[in-house]
Request: fold
Amino acid sequence: MKPLPPRHIASPGRHPEVRRTIVSPPCTVVLLGLLLLAMHTAAFAQVAILPVEDLRIGSGNTNWAVTEILENHLRDKGVDSIPSRQLLDFLAAHRIRTVGHFSLAEIALAGEELGCSHLVLATLTQLDENRLSFGMTIKFIRTSDGRVTWASTVGLNRDEIQTPLGIAAPDAMTAITETGMERLLTGMPAPEHPPKLSSATPPQQFLVASVHLAPTYIKPGETIRCSVRFNPLAALPDKVMFKVGSTVHLAEKKPAENTFQAAWDGEKGPAGNSPRLAALTPTRDMFQGSWQSPDDDSSHEVVMVAIADNGEKTEHYIGSYKVDSSPPGGVLTVKGKMIDGIPTFSGQTSIHFRLAGGEPLSRWKIVIVNGNGEPVSEYDGKDTVCDGSVTWNGQTSKGSKAPAGIYAVSLQAWDRAGNFSQTTETVRYVPEPVAPIVSMKADADGATTINLVTDSDIPVKYWSLQLWNKNNDLLLERYGDSLPGTVIIKGGIGSLTDSEISCRVTATDLLGNKVVNTIDNVQQLAAGRTTQEHLPTPAMDSWVEDF
Reply:
């Protein structure tokens, strides 16, 4: 006998969903035994037998032939079942598109509308005509609380039920299926009608579909909002309250809203050529409440109290929120060479920040401001880091190089409650080194004095002065580790040679910047100078960075 083609349970325009995955037994099936979940005594007053899910052809598919065999075996054991037509009408009316899994709300709804005590869910994992093997799992789910009261799994093949000398050995798929089904149901509790319940009815169970509590971090005196939607397949409470400690806040019932939804895969080509019909999706009434947070820093739990029509109350934990009034104070560190108490850099600097107490942030920003109070560069962060760093290379937000000067670096931080704090440090930016100024004078005794000074705020840590003749012979060389510096030539500059003399001055500042100045004719610089003065660099001189 060949396996029958699958049939699907689905409402028009809907597709089956993959809601469950079960690992099939191996091909050489062995008896897995009976799995008894007898936490409670099963009382099969009347059951709803769902179509058997056939995992051989994919999750969510059904096997109607095996379903009929199961129904016959349960009927022979005295189990009363809901008519198939009534069950299918129930599935279609509530858009239940799968048979391998039921939600708790769907189970409760089936018990209420179909009047059944249990749902019977069965899954076919093996049905091999070539090897004559059969594998299946079944479970009985009580509709009153959604618990599995009895379950069984069986797997067998022809070799396992061989008889001596092959007498009466099953030689057809029908016999294997019937034998496997009989073994599957071995040990099932006998059906019985449970005793009638007392007049006291159990409290209603309200199934929450979604909860929104915001904000979960808040400043004192601000408003907390909480909303709850209930599962559309379960009962709806008459009233809802939110309890915070000993205080109760009554929720307001908001009317239901309808939405239209549609989805499709992306396609190539111009859009709008294939219109789609959106489906109407009704939503359940929402209960919404709001209240103000207390003035003290504290944490609070929110419990929902759902009240039924008869006045019975049930409680559900919703969530918690924290009241926080403390700003996220932080520590800001700017890397650089400390000069006059200010970190100084010329290439790039690292800006490190750390929040006090390691508190996560909602966002942060680092702003670099010039002496006029104008921001020149910004760095934004959306993550919740409590420590981090950025690098500033002296560029403005527009991509140009910022001028030399002292800048303020500010860390602006917002914690999860929205508290704000700002921490500021200073940094000096020197994009280019400043060259020393060279001046010369002739003394009364015939000597020549060469003076080196600088207008830069960055001290010089090394300098050298060299005098050369036209033949590139080194005539004089002097060194120093700070400016101003002085070089005295006894006998005057003319005593060194009768040809033109060139001067080369090299300087390196504390930031490591190095510059070189070359003066082609020192005699012209010294001529007519009788007093010391800081001369600007002659137009014919050139200052270049030495790499």
